[in-house]
Design brief:
The protein is an alpha/beta fold. 43% of the residues lie in helices and 17% in strands. The chain contains 21 helices and 18 strands.
């Protein structure tokens, strides 16, 4: 469907990626992975035509329709849900306007027999038939069916989009894309604002959809459930693994280990060749062999090893003061917005040191209760904040609140106070903003980089109650793992609002479920909660000629014979002439030795060619775990090393025979 050839993108002097070539086929479910800032979102924008590459081509058939769900949505707050969703039918709307215009023209004209009128009738008929074939008459019914399937009530259709949370807005965008029926779906972080049920729905939809899918997501469970192919953007290259995400992780590790072994073996082979050349460079009798080695050395293609991004966010929350035993106590807390009750009778107690999760559908009150705890909005009932509690709050839209005109360093310098200002560079370096990165403008940062920058604010002052509202949105998987470990090691109390099952797993020991105006407590981890809710299905909620082989070498081949290594017992003294028979016998020995050398050289050439074939085979990701080929490669290299040693001995024997003839 989509063919990408030699793609290159540059921002400044260093290319984001180059030489990218791949094809998106029908029914592909491609996970586009890589660290924050690697160029994943840029790749999606290029595929959908929103951005032009520096070099290379993207070929899309004219009849191929592409649907793109961006990471950041730009919905107009003055329109209703129905009006926003109807934008999916923009092409049909324009077609209807053309048909209506032609219909009016037909009604006004009277030159019924003219060629122009007949041509107009033909155009009107063709356009109208196409319009009807596209299901134009059932658009409204399909729109309502889709919105209802995504969880909207009919009473929501005429509500302004401004009244809906980020998760519901994401569903509106999804509805628009589904109604367009694209051949290729491009999804950039689709789970960032979706609740657990919405993520499950999206997983099921993508599994059943006939469209090809290219998606970027940091939700490990979601991406593994959906993908059947993985494209990795790493160190400026795009590598294609034709397996799902979990298998890609294993293959990538194995691929690099094999590359390292092949590289080390190749370096040993190169060193051996150079040593041979240096040793026999000035011996005339070795001239042929030396030239052979030189030619072999010139033909060697250096093995490249995939670079590994070892940079990682080093996050450790500073030591905090001890809070009271119960940082948060709610007793019959209730929150109303006009006639709408968000929740009532909320009674809960969070103990010091506990790590708890707030989960539930979007709009059920998770962020609302957080705002009550923060004292940002009024409520009824009793809500106590414990003694000596210092709150650190990471809001869901924290990254979007940054001033885009400032640099990374200026952003932190503006909020840092006292001695902490002397440690700004150290803190930025720990969050992978070291060196020139700290001089970047916020406006050029990716979503993940903005989230990391916003997270630094939490480190500026010690706190003992962390409230994190969707902290993993836009963070890449390694950064999420680091954040998770930092929260686990945090001395204080943590409340985590998240839909990321993998992130919550092993982190929280208590789950508060928001739904139907109630808040229910569940002891145990996130998967205990999912199982109790009977939604456990969510978890379903390198060219190298350097390697090794062993060859049996016959004693006669591996050791010089007494006849060939020493002068014959009948050999005349230095001043005497040999008899004809002795001379003939010596020539036989020389010919035999020459034949052995040629046979050895043929074996070496055959093994080198086989090693080249195996090397090219193992460099392909799908063959990275082919242990049969790996074993053959290793044994062939050992055989080659033994044969090279044998070849050297045979040459020495031949030289001695020639000298003694």
């Amino acid at each position: 469907m989509i063919s990408v050839e030699g793609l290159r993108v540059e921002f400044g002097l260093k290319p984001l990626f180059s030489g990218a070539s791949f094809v998106v086929n029908d029914r592909d479910r491609i996970a586009l992975v890589g660290k924050n800032g690697a160029g994943k979102s840029t790749m999606l924008k290029i595929l959908c035509g929103q951005q032009k590459p520096t070099a290379g081509t993207v070929s899309i058939p004219t009849d191929c329709r592409v649907g793109y769900l961006p990471q950041v949505m730009n919905l107009q707050d003055e329109v209703t849900v129905r009006e926003e969703t109807q934008k999916a039918f923009a092409d049909l709307t324009r077609m209807k306007e053309r048909i209506d215009a032609m219909n009016r023209e037909l009604a006004e004209r009277t030159d019924y027999e003219s060629a122009g009128y007949l041509e107009l009738v033909e155009r009107f008929t063709t356009e109208h038939e196409r319009y009807m074939m596209m299901g134009a008459e059932s658009c409204e019914a399909e729109l309502e069916r889709t919105l209802t399937g995504l969880g909207f009530r009919r009473t929501d259709f005429d509500r302004p989009t401004s009244e809906f949370s980020g998760g519901w807005r994401m569903r509106i965008e999804l509805a628009k894309i589904l109604l367009q029926r694209p051949d290729v779906l491009l999804l950039d972080e689709p789970t960032n604002h979706l609740d657990i049920e919405s993520i499950q729905w999206l997983e099921q939809f993508l599994a059943q959809s006939a469209s090809a899918v290219v998606l970027v997501s940091h939700d490990r469970a979601f991406i593994n459930n959906v993908s059947n192919r993985t494209l990795e953007i790493s160190c400026g290259r795009v590598i294609d693994y034709k397996v799902k995400y979990n298998e890609y992780v294993v293959l990538r590790r194995e691929r690099r280990e094999q590359q390292l072994r092949a590289y080390e073996n190749q370096q040993k082979e190169i060193a051996d060749m150079k040593a041979f050349i240096d040793r026999f460079r000035y011996q005339a009798t070795k001239a042929v062999q030396v030239q052979q080695k030189v030619k072999q050395l010139e033909k060697i293609v250096p093995i490249e090893i995939d670079e590994v991004d070892n940079s990682a966010m080093h996050l450790k929350f500073p030591p905090c003061l001890r809070s009271g035993d119960y940082p948060v106590i709610c007793d019959e807390v209730r929150k109303d917005y006009g006639a709408h009750t968000v929740f009532d009778h909320v009674t809960l107690t969070i103990k010091r040191g506990e790590k708890v999760a707030f989960v539930g559908k979007n709009g059920e009150g998770k962020s609302t209760l957080v705002k009550c705890i923060m004292g940002e909005i009024p409520y009824t009932g009793e809500l106590k904040i414990g003694h000596n509690v210092q709150i650190g709050y990471f809001a869901q839209n924290q990254a979007q609140l940054l001033d885009e005109t400032l640099t990374v360093h200026q952003t932190i310098d503006n909020v840092a106070k006292g001695e902490i200002r002397l440690r700004i560079n150290d803190i930025l370096g720990a969050f992978m903003f070291g060196g020139e990165e700290s001089d970047k403008k916020v406006k050029v940062l990716s979503g993940g980089e903005r989230s990391r920058l916003a997270m630094i604010r939490l480190l500026l002052e010690p706190v003992n109650l962390l409230i994190l509202d969707e902290p993993t949105n836009h963070l890449d998987m390694p950064s999420k793992d680091v954040l998770k470990e930092a929260i686990k090691a945090f001395d204080g109390t943590a409340i985590v609002v998240s839909h990321d099952r993998e992130f919550l797993d092993g982190l929280v020991t208590k789950v508060y479920e928001f739904g139907d105006g109630k808040v229910r407590e569940h002891l145990g981890g996130i998967y205990d909660f999912l199982q109790a809710k009977r939604i456990s299905e969510l978890s379903e909620l390198g060219k190298s000629s350097a390697t090794a082989k062993s060859v049996d070498v016959s004693p006669s081949a591996s050791q010089p014979s007494s006849q060939s290594s020493a002068p014959s017992a009948t050999q005349p003294s230095a001043g005497e002439k040999r008899s004809y028979a002795e001379h003939k016998e010596q020539q036989k020995r020389i010919k035999k030795a020459e034949k052995a050398v040629k046979e050895s050289e043929a074996k070496i050439e055959a093994m080198e060619n086989r090693l080249k074939e195996l090397d090219e085979l193992l460099m392909q990701p799908e063959n990275a775990s082919d242990m049969k080929s790996v074993t053959e490669y290793t044994s062939t290299k050992k055989c080659l090393d033994d044969e090279m040693a044998r070849w050297e001995r045979l040459n020495e024997e031949l030289e001695q025979l020639i000298q003694n003839q």
